[in-house]
Backbone:
DNA sequence: ATAATAAGTTTGATTTTCAAACCAACTCTT
DNA sequence: AAGAGTTGGTTTGAAAATCAAACTTATTAT
């Protein structure tokens, strides 16, 4: 009778990795702002509500992790704007799923950010089975029977 | 010539709402754990790495927001396990997109959490145009030209 | 010459986080 | 029956992060 000993260390995974980079109070709001186009420091501060000192630290961190980049728009004085990198734009599904979860599962109302296709319609995120294509309903009324995790239990 | 005055208040939206609930260092890791099935306090603490006191506060908050529920498994002493609600299970697309972003955009490696369809294959998240169905590539090599935001700029 | 803009940095007070110790209620072992 | 172990937290005290507001530096506009 084989039994796996209880692990004393936290589970490390890609979700944890991702949260290490964008899992704080402000980072994803910064990314949201940059989806509206390149932005300057003061605008990001105003629209996210982040304190300026914290924002400065976050922007450096996001730059280090390749989520955004600084692009100069003036020398004398040196000034730059912030712009998403491809990696930063690749966060759109995260924002879209978060947005949808918020609108469907939290009482609230405002729904201002909308990403649109160039054809004019909205973008939406969807989860489906890689093989058979069955769509996982996001309202998850009975999602329980739809998926299982495979992992060492202890 | 009409121009919108600069807003002094941060933009409020569903993304911000969602982050208010699950946008901290531990909450989404708690949800990840609960996807493996109902869990007890000590197991969640061990597997997420969250300090016990913080975890207690987060679990209460997540319960208040309807993400999870306590289900008794013993009286004398009163004990319960934590279980996702439908609203909590509806976070699976958020976890899946975060996971995918982490694995494709951050150097790292571990990829332990896998949600599977009952048919055995993996679930994946995808962003597409609601109308014409065009898929937004998640590597976002040139996603820039694929979508635009419509919002008051100031 | 004065005021305004821009991108941060500094300051000092308040909050949050953390690890480790502790507690209460029970069960299991000897 | 006494002592050790388990479970689900709470308490404590120190360290770190957050915050709002004031400040700095460089430059342009009036």
Residues:
């Amino acid at each position: 009778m084989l039994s796996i000993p209880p692990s004393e260390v936290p589970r490390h995974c890609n979700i944890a990795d991702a949260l290490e980079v964008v899992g704080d109070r402000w980072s994803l709001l910064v990314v949201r702002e940059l989806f509206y186009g390149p932005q300057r420091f003061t605008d990001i501060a105003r629209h996210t509500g982040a304190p300026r000192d914290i924002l400065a630290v976050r922007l450096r961190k996001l730059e280090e992790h390749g989520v955004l980049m600084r692009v100069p728009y003036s020398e004398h004085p040196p000034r730059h704007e912030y712009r998403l990198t491809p990696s930063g734009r690749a966060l759109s599904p995260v924002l879209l799923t978060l947005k949808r979860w918020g609108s469907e599962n939290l009482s609230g109302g405002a729904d201002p950010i909308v990403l649109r296709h160039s054809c004019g319609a909205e973008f939406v995120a969807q989860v489906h089975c890689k093989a058979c294509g069955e769509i996982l309903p996001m309202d998850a009324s009975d999602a329980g029977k739809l998926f299982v995790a495979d992992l060492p239990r202890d």
